[in-house]
Specification:
The chain is of the alpha+beta class. It is built from 15 helices and 35 strands. Helix 7 crosses helix 8 and helix 8 crosses helix 9.
Length: about 700
């Protein structure tokens, strides 16, 4: 309490503290015995017992601060009333403060996979003894396939509102591919539509509620054969109308449009896939498209030959038009023509010669063409060339391609989703039951927008095509296995999974409250039969531990505190007459603070949240809970100019950052605090979570700080 004496004479003041609400307790040794006086230095003699009253002497016009140290004993609302009493005038005031529990809802994530030749896997987890038992929850999810989750993306393609050439194609081809797989499995499409299991074992929450959160579409055409037939008829007719007189396709159609090699290759590839899935095409439509691509390839070969031309003196003298290397577009056209059985040994050699300069995407296309033509030695080399870009993550059983810096995202061959999709197709044909392909599948699914589709209609179409091919090649389309979940040596659940109930089986075990006992536990996942199994587990507790440790799987956050120490710094600026003068600027040196480090009231602190994301995500919140003795240095919420473009919201007990898009990799967010109130405080862990994906959670360690006068 800051006590002011506005009276004309010196006064003996009794300062009294009153606590209500049962949340705070006076700590031993923090108040003097009644009647004790303050020394001339303003310090109180060391007391033997705590007291709610202190007596001080105040000169006329003087002021003095009186302190009590209190300890939080429970959560709730604390009422603090202070009174200053004299023989002439008295005053008092009261305030109410929220008192927060030292605890948080913490989720720990576990991920695993059993290959077809493996029968069991296990992991350990620890349930804290200090917790709110009724809020404990253990959820274990499992699925024989992740690729089957591709059906979620089909409504996005069917309902896309524009109708250029690519989007017309992508509206029906992926649906045809998926429906044929389901029909070949002998499934009842209507039955699946009524009740469908989420085949992505990593996703938590009720499927219907997740759909509402992501604003998914109301219908999925894949379960309606009549609707698909109508879509195919309309799509094929529209593409036939958009085909130009020379046999190729442009972006749209009409006066002034011309055929483009990339667009034509995309359409011809899609039509070939559609025909493989029993779609009838108008006579000559596909042949004219192939002929246009063949003519384009011949022109490109001639340009490559022109680059090798020599003059009369024998020196190199390219002839116009010419180009030095076979490029990414040549690889795409070569792949599409190869799908129809056409071979071109000259272009094959050019592409193999220039393979190092091809984008990873184009290397995968070239590899698919080599596999089709059974050129094994060159295919082996291309696979080795691509493998150097593969990054494995054993923690969550994924793999991705680390594309090089010259992989320009604005070009078609710069699409990360499409590059992964065609690489997955290549693996599905060369090693479908190997270790790498299912990891790529999991990575692709983890990087869907809105947990359903990818970046565009084209990359979504290619991803579905790749997942469908993997589903057939790996055998995951026809699982025949029994899953058992064991906890501490006792069987908790047994589920039979077959092709007939692939989309309707019971895919989770949930234990709550007292069933989740404290201590260390071992979870075992066992399977019998054929096929792989993917599983995830989520342990949620409202922990009351004294020191809460970090947790997180897909998104991780670690918090660091730095004391900012002013340093002398000046820069040259223009003076009033244009002369160079020195001007001091604000600059600080950062000193990292260890846990339980001591600060002084008034110190400036920088809080840095180090964020690691294994995938690309959207709509995330990062909350940093500040120590109660500190206040934010900034006064206004808003976009603070941070590198992530996050919106910063300042609240009484936390600072929140709202991140629209989080790219895979490491990032950081920072803001400043000022230490104010003396005491020892706990800053609860910083938290990370996604607004629409409840399985995306992580937290940092908590940290304790001491603030001295």
């Amino acid at each position: 309490a800051n006590v002011h004496n506005y009276l004309k004479t010196k006064k003996s003041v009794k300062v009294r503290l009153e606590l209500e609400g049962g949340c705070l307790r006076l700590m031993d040794g923090t108040g003097p015995q009644e009647g004790a006086t303050v020394t001339t230095a303003g310090r109180l003699p060391a007391p033997s017992q705590p007291s709610l009253e202190q007596r001080i002497e105040l000169e006329a016009g003087g002021e003095r601060r009186v302190d009590w140290r209190v300890k939080v004993v429970r959560e709730g609302e604390a009422l603090i009333r202070m009174a200053a009493l004299t023989d002439e005038e008295s005053d008092a005031m009261e305030q109410r403060f929220p008192v927060y529990v030292h605890g948080m809802l913490k989720m720990e994530s576990f991920s695993g996979m059993l290959r077809a030749d493996e029968s069991a896997g296990k992991f350990d987890l620890t349930v804290p003894a200090e917790r709110r038992i009724e809020e404990s929850r253990l959820e274990i999810r499992y699925s024989p396939t992740l690729a089957g989750a591709m059906v979620d993306a089909l409504p996005y393609l069917a309902e896309y509102p524009y109708g250029c050439t690519e989007q017309t194609l992508n509206r029906f081809v992926p649906t045809v591919i998926t429906q044929k797989i389901l029909i070949d499995m002998g499934l009842d499409l209507k039955k699946i539509q009524e009740k469908r299991t989420n085949l992505n074992a990593q996703e938590l929450g009720d499927a219907a509620e997740r759909a509402k959160g992501w604003k998914r579409f109301d219908r999925n055409p894949v379960f309606d054969a009549e609707e698909v037939g109508k879509m195919v008829k309309e799509g094929v007719q529209r593409l036939a109308e958009m085909q130009l007189a020379d046999g190729g396709w442009g972006w749209f159609s009409g006066y002034g449009e011309q055929s483009w090699p990339h667009t034509t290759a995309v359409v011809v590839h899609g039509l070939q896939v559609a025909r493989q899935n029993d779609v009838a095409l108008p006579a000559g439509m596909l042949d004219r498209g192939l002929a246009w691509l063949k003519g384009h390839q011949e022109r490109q070969k001639q340009m490559l030959k022109n680059a090798l031309a020599k003059g009369p003196d024998g020196k190199s003298k390219p002839v116009n038009p010419w180009k030095e290397k076979a490029d990414n577009l040549d690889s795409l056209v070569f792949y599409v023509l190869g799908e129809s059985g056409q071979k071109d040994d000259e272009m094959l050699e050019y592409l193999y010669r220039d393979r190092v300069s091809l984008a990873v995407y184009a290397k995968a296309l070239f590899g698919l063409a080599l596999h089709k033509q059974q050129v094994q030695d060159k295919l082996d080399m291309i696979l080795k060339n691509i493998e150097q870009f593969v990054v494995l993550d054993d923690e969550n059983q994924t793999a991705h391609l680390r594309l090089p810096q010259d992989n320009y995202w604005w070009s078609w061959y710069g699409s990360e989703v499409e590059a992964h999709s065609f690489y997955l197709q290549l693996l599905s044909r060369t090693d479908p039951k190997g270790k790498l392909a299912p990891r790529i599948v999991k990575y692709l699914l983890n990087n869907r927008k809105h947990a359903t589709y990818w970046e565009s209609t084209r990359d979504t179409s290619y991803a579905i095509e790749a997942l469908a091919e993997y589903l057939k090649a790996s055998g995951e389309a026809k699982p025949d296995l029994t899953v058992e979940v064991w906890l501490d040596g006792k069987q908790q659940k047994e589920v039979k999974i077959s092709p007939e109930d692939l989309f309707t089986f019971d895919n989770k075990l949930v234990l709550t409250g007292p069933a989740v006992t404290g201590g260390k536990h071992t979870v075992e996942i066992k399977k019998r039969g054929t096929g792989p199994l993917y599983y995830n587990a989520y342990l949620t507790n409202f922990t009351l531990e004294d020191f809460i440790t970090r947790a997180g799987l897909e998104v991780k956050v670690q918090r660091k505190l730095y004391k900012l120490v002013p340093v002398d710094k000046s820069i040259k600026v223009a003076g009033s007459r244009g002369q160079a003068v020195d001007q001091k600027v604000e600059k600080y040196a950062r000193e990292e603070l260890a846990n339980d480090a001591e600060l002084k009231s008034g110190d400036l602190i920088e809080v840095e949240l180090e964020i690691e994301s294994k995938n690309d995500y959207e709509y995330l919140i990062f909350e940093d809970f500040k120590a109660a003795g500190c206040e934010a240095a900034a006064l206004q919420s808003g976009y603070g100019g941070n590198a992530m473009g996050a919106y910063m919201e300042l609240r009484d007990n936390r600072t929140s950052f709202f991140v629209r898009a989080l790219a895979r990799g490491k990032h950081s967010l920072a803001y400043r605090l000022r230490s104010e109130i003396p005491g020892r405080f706990s800053a609860l862990p910083a938290r990370a979570y996604a607004m629409y994906a409840p399985e995306l959670k992580g937290n940092s360690d908590e940290i304790k700080v001491r603030i001295a006068d």
